[in-house]
Protein 1
Amino acid sequence: MRTDGVGVSLLWFRRDLRLEDSAALARAAECGLPIVGMYAFHTGDLPADARQHTVVYRQLSILDDAIRAKTGGGLLIFRADDGVFSDALRRRFSHENIKAVFANDVDDPRERERERIMQSICEAHGIPFFRTHDATIYPHDTIVKPDGSPYGVYTPYARRWRERFHIELADPVIPEKKPVWDTTPRQFPTLKSLGIHERETPETVVKIDDTLLREYAQTRDLLDHPHPTSRIGTALAIGAVSIRHAVRRAIEADSQTFLSELVWREFFHMLICHAPETIQTAYQPHLRGIEWGHDERSTEMWKAGKTGFPLVDAGMRELSETGYMPNRLRMLSANFLCKLLRTDWRLGERHFAGQLSDYDPASNTGNWQWSAGIGADSVPYFRIFSPTRQIQRFDPEGAYRSQWLDDEGEIEPIIDYERARREFLTWWKYSVLWKQ
Ligand SMILES: Cc1cc2nc3c(=O)[nH]c(=O)nc-3n(C[C@H](O)[C@H](O)[C@H](O)COP(=O)(O)OP(=O)(O)OC[C@H]3O[C@@H](n4cnc5c(N)ncnc54)[C@H](O)[C@@H]3O)c2cc1C
């Protein structure tokens, strides 16, 4: 154990990878001890080749440089596979003279489990563990129904959210004391040493343009527009910017539609806190026993963007090439997988988790369940998107498709849309509704 000086504070970074406007960092700074920033790669949460590992690694490198420039020694980064997190932590606790631990909350049940591990190790060492609220504007139990129970429907939740909102809630958190970083030299690990496969990722967008916000309500669904949406999702998912920043920008630009989208994020974060089991199972208990199918070949075609339905395929190819897919196409391709292919939503959720650079456990799970018709405030089971109608509405000139497909019309559709639609409706009526 390090015995020099008075010891250090451990700042446990997770989905809050920034040095500004962070509740946990402010609190650690106020404590006054030199801060050691720590990040553990949990490779079990995502596939080893998940794009977000690379995104996180790059952001950690930015933080590490910034901390070194402030005469700190750099971040403490290690890999913690499933089941070894507690051993990995114990080793760190035996090397560092840790006096307190600080962390921002993360709305992911797997992280809650890790907090319990951290808590018990802290207790064993007789040191405090401070967990601060930071991931959303309101803590999950603030916007609730008059009887104290959580909302299961977005509209009344959003109404209450707005009624209670005042701009100070979106003020940045500014520490009263300047953070002092621990100076112990630490080596920044290579991707290889962490067992992570490097992926192509665009730079993480952290700025939200004013014009975009003003035009957002009109542009957000346009597939042929150069900047229809903010692309702030990745920064929010890994915490490169705070949710306070995004909400403040929406209010300043008076972009109510953009704010509503951020409230959807809040809604899904609230839901996963109240119902952590939904990371794996349907939000609606009576829909938990559905026996979804899984046809290996069609799932692979869907992943590869080779279903023969050009808009679905174009979206899936943009996803695998860039780590991004517009919301409209996420809804279309999820609806296609769950309803027309009748495939278990969890397979789609895991595929998106591995591909999206903006993967967010609460939003991905919530949206997948919404699309499959088993989540909170979901699309009704009988709403099945027609890939042809979606083309007429959102890509009539084919600009988006031609950007991502070089073989449009060459792939035989893997299903007959009308037949698959009828079969789904019959299956749902007789196998799902009648079983209740
Ligand atoms: C099947 C499916 C899976 C999805 N998985 C994710 C995910 O893993 N991570 C994620 O952040 N979003 C997810 N979304 C929601 C949405 O598609 C993305 O947030 C959005 O496309 C990101 O692009 P943007 O940052 O340009 O968004 P903008 O349109 O500019 O919106 C701004 C921000 O609002 C939030 N937001 C917007 N729409 C939603 C929504 N429907 N639900 C929750 N938050 C929203 C996001 O934080 C987003 O960055 C998913 C949607 C579907 C249908």
Protein 2
Amino acid sequence: MDVTGIELSLAMPRTCTVCPHPHRDDIDRRLLDGAPLRNIAKQFSLSSASLFRHNKHISKVLSNARQEAEILRADGLMDTT
Ligand SMILES: [Zn+2]
């Protein structure tokens, strides 16, 4: 299975301070939960501006991941027949 598309989109935004963050998973989860940017920024010592920018990276990664999942699912359905 080719995952280079996902890896590329993760590595692409070099100006983003959130993408390389060690607690990125937690940050992403909080953003997806709809937590206020100011709260997350405070919690992880980031600026709400960079979180706002990073928010777009999440949806990009997620839609890629969803596509991959759909492809995997389709492959699985074909394999079981
Ligand atoms: Zn980012």
